[in-house]
Amino acid sequence: MDLSREEQEMLDGKYGKATKKSMEIITTLGEIYGAERLISVSSVQIAGVSYHNLGEAGLEYLAGMAEDGRTKVLTTLNPAGMDLVEWKKHGINNDFARNQQRVVDIFNRMGVVTTCTCTPYLIGNLPHYGEHIAWAESSAVCFANSVIGALTNREGGPSALAAALTGRTAEYGLHLRENRIAQVKYEVQTKLEDTDDFGLLGHVIGVRTGKEIPYITGIVSVTMEKLKSFSASVATYGGVALFHMENITPNRTLVPDRTEVVTREDLDAARMTLDDDEADIDFISIGCPHASIKEIARVAELLEGKRVAEGKTVWITTAKPTKELAIMMGYYETIENAGAFLVSDACCAVAPLKERFKGLMTDSAKACFYARGKNKFKTEIRSIEQCLEEAVT
Ligand code: F3S
C-alpha cells in the first residue's frame, strides 16, 4: 500500500503510540481488503460506547489509547447506556452510571465530542455529498451513504477510533465509486404512511436483498424521519450500507434489470413478523434512530394534557442538543408532565434494560430486533400516534 511520508511516520511511531496503533489497524484492514492507499476523512462517528457492551476489557483498551491519542477530525459518539445527566430517574444503578461516565470521560480526554447519538447528522456532525468519512453506527452509515451521499464503510469501534486519531482510512469498499452501483431494483407498489411503514419496508427489502445494493422506485414522498427509519431497518435486517431511491437520494447509479416487487401484503407480513402474540406492553419507546426535534414536537403535542398509564414506561430517546432545544421549546415539560421521559444520550437497545420490561411497543423495526434479541422483550410495531395512545391507555 502506498503511504505518504506523514502516514509512514505515524506508522513508525513518530506521533506517539495511539497514532501508531491506529495506523497499524488501518493499514492491516487496507491490506485485507486490497486498498492501494489511505484517504483523509473529514468526520468520524464511533459506536460501542455503552459500558454494557464494552465492559472492563473495552474500557482498558480505550484508556490505553487516551494516554497520548487525540482526535484529528470532528468525532462524535453513538448512544451510551444512559442519559448522562438524568440517569437516576430512569432507573439506572450507581455502578453502571459510574462506569459509563468513565467511558465518556476517556473519549472526552481524546477530544471526542461526547454527545452520544446515532443521528450525528442532526446535531452538527453533517458531512456534505462526496465527503469521505468513517462512521460506525449502521443506521447512520446507511443514511450518510444513501441520503447525504457521503462515502463510508461500516467501521467497527477500534477502526473508527483509529480514523479519528489519524484522520485517515483505507480506500476500499464504499469509498470506491465502482462499489456503489445498485444491484437489484425494488418496485414499491403501495403507499407508505408513517415511520413504522418505512421500517417495515426496510425489513422487507433488507431480508430479501441481504448485502446487495437496492435501487428503490415507487416512493413518492419522504421526510428525513422516514428515511432514517428506513436506513436503520434495511441495515439491521439486511446488512445494507447503501441504497438508492429514485428521485429522492442524490447518488448516480445504473438502474439494475433484475426487479422485485414490494406490495402492501409484504409490509403486512413484515408487521406480523415483528408483532408477537400476546405481547404485554409495559414499555413504549420512540426515537430509534434518535428522535428529531420535529418528532419530539409531535410527541409533545400528542401527550399534551394526557397521563401515561400506571405500569407503563415511555422513553423518547434523542441527542443531548436536541433535548436542550426541546427544553427551550417547552416540549420537555409537556412530555415529562405526562409521565413520559425524554432521554438523551441513550436508547432502548444499548441501555441496561434486560428483565425490566415484558413488552415493547415502538415505531422502529430496528428497535424490535434488539428488544427481542438482546433484552428478550416481546414487541409490537405501530405508528408514533398508536404508540402514544397505548401509553396513555
Ligand atoms: Fe440508534 Fe439505538 Fe436505534 S443506537 S438506531 S436508537 S438501536
Report on this model:
The protein folds into 3 domains: 5-177, 2-Layer Sandwich (Aconitase, domain 3); 181-273, Aconitase, Domain 2 (3-Layer(aba) Sandwich), CATH 3.40.1060; 275-392, 2-Layer Sandwich (Aconitase, domain 3). Strand 7 (184-188), helix 7 (195-209) and strand 8 (214-217) form a beta-alpha-beta unit. It contains 14 helices and 15 strands. The relative contact order is 0.13. Helix content is 41%, strand content 16%. The chain starts with a helix and ends with a helix. The strands form 4 sheets. Strands 13-12-11-14-15 form a 5-stranded parallel β-sheet, sandwiched between helices. The protein is of the alpha/beta class. The model has no long low-confidence stretch (mean pLDDT 97). Residues 78-79, 118, 137, 139, 232, 288-290, 317, 347, 349-350, 366-367, 370 line the site of FE3-S4 cluster. FE3-S4 cluster is lined by residues 78-79, 118, 137, 139, 232, 288-290, 317, 347, 349-350, 366-367, 370.
